[in-house]
Amino acid sequence: MTDQTIPPRRPMTLRDVSEASGVSEMTVSRVLRNRGDVSEATRKRVLEAARDLGYVPNKIAGALASSRVNLVAVIIPSLSNMVFPEVLGGITEVLDETHLQPVVGVTNYRPDREEKVIYEMLSWRPSGIIIAGIEHNESCRRMLRAADVPVVEIMDVDGEAVDSVVGISQRRAGRTMAEAILRQGFEQIGFLGTQMPLDHRARKRFEGFTETLARSGREVADQEFYSGGSALKKGREMTHAILSRTPDIDFLYYSNDMIGAGGLLYCLEEGYDIPGRLGLAGFNGTELLDGLPRKLATMDAGRAATGREAARIIAGRTDGSITDPRRIEIEANIEFGNTLRRYKP
Fold first, then answer.
1. pLDDT given for residue 1 in this prediction
2. Which of 31, 52, 123, 301 could form a disulfide with 46 if both were Cys (CB 3.0 to 4.6 A apart)?
3. What angle do CA 85, 89, 92 make, to 5 degrees?
4. Which residues of the chain have pLDDT under 50?
5. Distance of alpha carbon 160 from alpha carbon 17, whole angstroms
6. Helix 40-53 vs helix 25-32: angle between axes, to the nearest 10 degrees?
């Protein structure tokens, strides 16, 4: 083994880029901050020199004058739930065409954690905030209202937005699913889902769902709740529990596709006639369902579209092309699969 002394590193500076590209430091600064009128040839020369040197501009130092960095805070409740990576994909797709970059904070569905994440994100003076949900504690709402940056709440439009909002109506989604189930002649309907005090979107879907059943003179025949992350195993266990307890149930509505997929696998193994004897539906329209032996009915919540629209609002508010708050409702569509439709439309 040879022990060699590694020369100390010298941080690159604007002067290094200036000398390598043959333009002034001021021009280099304008190019790297994407400011000012610079010819395309000069811009290309500067960027190539910076890349060759491995120079990364200090965005915090540059932000001291403007009190902003070119980061967009994206605050979501979970990374383990397959829903949120698709939202992030939509956000990234749009921001990749701008000078803005997303940075992610995770709240784990906890209001105290959300408050901390919002505080930390705002302390970096981002150019905008995209945050999942429209329900926040008062401390979070105060910070979001006071932030001198565009805020886009996503995935739920049922409520009062701080600024802009993009997503589906969760209550309408629940109503739509209940109407479809009833039209197919199912009567004894069970619900399986997460404990909902902290998952406001699931709670609103459940409210819309049960209100629609009530208008037809029905109510949920039985329900099974869980806490913690979604999983196939959990869906199997919950389905076994509810069918053992209430065997005459003829439809199971799951709050998400993951536990719904577990329930479907359990029912197929147990030999249930689906959807003749027992119908099932989940929520979210995740790609996971494409790999199942039977296509689970679900509802596409437009997650990627939600991410794209939210990012467009942030980008537009940042460059001045959008001046006012926006409210964009994404349509949630039922995908009937092979587990809901008894009758042809």
1. 39
2. 31
3. 130
4. 1-6
5. 49
6. 90
